[in-house]
Amino acid sequence: MALPRRFPSGSAAAQRDEAMPHLQFDLNFAPSPEQKGRFAQAVLRGFAEIMDTGTDPIAMTLRTCPREDLLFGRSRDGRAVILNADVRYGRSTEQKRRVALKIMEEVERFFGLPRRNVYVVLTEHEGESFQLSDEVPTWRPGENPLED
Hints:
Blueprint: H1 12-16, E1 22-27, H2 33-51, E2 59-64, E3 81-88, H3 93-111, E4 118-125
Parallel strand pairs: 1-2, 3-4
Antiparallel strand pairs: 1-3
């Protein structure tokens, strides 16, 4: 299911927002393709809403590996999800906490893992660290891409 764009292709807002976040999930279990697809769509929507961006610029990787190849000490049953998220500077502490909790909620909802089995690492970068076709400025609080 394709998600709607929040702003027109080629608009100034779309060009500015091309500094895409990359959400890299590592799972030490193998969910079904349907579970992964529904999870990815829910994460895209939640991330875009909380982080005040469109869904088009979000890149996501879901990798699975054997349980013994990914360990997280807090996990009581051995199953774990680790998210390394590369995002632009400028989001508030509250936004970052909300998005981390939202992702933990979606992992629990779609895969049945307790939230304590999820580890979220957010790494912030300047906009120009995300390269597609143009250099992109860093997001700033109060910026509304829909007003461009």
